[in-house]
Design a protein that fits this description.
Elements (H helix, E strand, L loop, with lengths): L1 H19 L1 H16 L4 E5 L4 H5 L9 E3 L25 H8 L7 E5 L6 H13 L2 E6 L1 H5 L17 E4 L7 E3 L8 E3 L1 H22 L15 H15 L2
Parallel strand pairs: 1-2, 1-3, 3-4, 4-5
Antiparallel strand pairs: 6-7
Length: about 240
């Protein structure tokens, strides 16, 4: 049955993650913990594959992971014209976004992109490094190495990072061939990205506690005192950074 083949494929994915990514998770978690312990912040920029919703403001998650997003809004309702010859890559916007944000040199920025090739992702990674941030890349090295960067630097995300969490997604994401279907089935990156991030956060929590710091965790709001507890922990985070 297809469900059994899927179970087996997922089991294999997680076995490979545990066999190859433990040291990377330890490096990422230690980097986050060291940053938080000295008063820095951890920012998360994800292109949409689960991580922001799974890790941030989630029961059992840490308060010190905070979302980083930016956009450009232009209101210019003139008639439609041909702009095909104009460079609209918006390289350089990320540097402005960092300057306008609450990020400071010494912080950590986690960037999630499976292919790691798009302009906004590379622009942000390069700008973050120049700004003095450490970059953790959550990406697929196999997938990314097989595609061409769209950024003028020619770099992919894994080539811009201090720590790489390789989600082991195959090129074009899907893991399984199904007889009779032209396209492969079942994306890998959401499952593995979640696993890698929770693993890294586990390392960060343990490292902080070894230093005498008990990081604030979110309690489910389905508990009777959940909302009040989270509000109290948020105030503590604002004062301490953890």
């Amino acid at each position: 049955m297809l469900i059994d083949k899927y179970f087996s494929t997922v089991d294999d994915l997680f076995s490979r993650l545990k066999a190859t990514q433990k040291e990377n998770c330890e490096a990422a978690g230690s980097l986050m913990a060291e940053t938080v312990a000295r008063g820095g912040a951890v920012h998360v920029y994800d292109t949409g594959h689960i991580v922001n919703r799974e890790l941030i403001h989630r029961g059992g998650g840490v308060h010190f992971l905070k979302q980083f997003t930016f956009s450009l809004s232009v209101d210019n309702p003139v008639r439609s014209r041909d702009r095909s010859a104009i460079d609209s890559s918006l390289e350089g916007l990320a540097a402005y976004a960092l300057r306008a944000s609450n990020a400071l040199p010494g912080d950590v920025l986690i960037i999630g992109s499976v292919s790691g090739k798009t302009v906004n992702v590379i622009d942000l990674a390069l700008a973050a490094k120049e700004f003095g941030l450490s970059v953790i890349a959550l990406t697929s090295v196999t997938y990314s190495a097989s595609v061409k960067s769209l950024h003028s630097s020619g770099k992919r995300l894994f080539e811009c990072a201090d720590v790489i969490l390789d989600n082991l997604a195959p090129a074009a994401e899907a893991m399984m061939e199904i007889e009779g279907l032209e396209t492969r089935f079942a994306a890998a990156s959401g499952l593995s990205a979640t696993f890698l991030m929770w693993s890294s956060v586990a390392v960060a929590i343990e490292t902080l506690m070894q230093r005498g710091i008990s990081p604030a965790l979110f309690k489910s709001i389905n508990f009777e005192d959940g909302a009040e507890y989270n509000a109290k922990m948020h105030q503590r985070y604002l004062q301490t950074g953890w």
